[in-house]
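Lab notebook, bench 4. Still working through the backlog of constructs that have no structural model yet. Next entry is a single chain of 152 residues. Request: give me the structure tokens for it.
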Amino acid sequence: MTVFMNDEAFIKKGFQISTDKGLLQVDVIYDYLNNDSYWAQGIPREKMEKAITNSMCFGVYTNDQQVGFARVVTDAATFAYICDVFVLPAFRKKGLSKWLIQSVVNHPDLQGLRRWSLATADAHGLYSQFDFTQITHPERWMEIFTPYIKPQ
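Model written out:
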């Protein structure tokens, strides 16, 4: 399903957000995640492509160029995990990341969920604007963490 998120201020500036996976520029996404993100460096391209295939994806575009991305892992009924969120450096400080997260949490297929989650090292201010808080009972959460590359 293609959903173009409407915000007149951004549309007038030539930006759009879409969930159409056919518009995704996988080279842009892979380059950013593999080379510039702190959370996915070293990810094999095949894993990233499989993750995209099996997730709801939001792309931010201007002039047929992808400039941002967010991925949501969800059952569309009870749970959603927001991940791989970025706006390319040249397009930051324009409010695009806020618009992107607003588009994600307001998407019609993601309403009525019992729990949303995400992990961030540096964007707490962004997510707190959308009522994200620290995990209420972190002692209840567990994980298996196997990064793609080991720190040097």
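Notes after review: The mean pLDDT is 91. The helical segments are 8-12, 26-35, 45-53, 96-105, 124-128. Flag for follow-up if needed.
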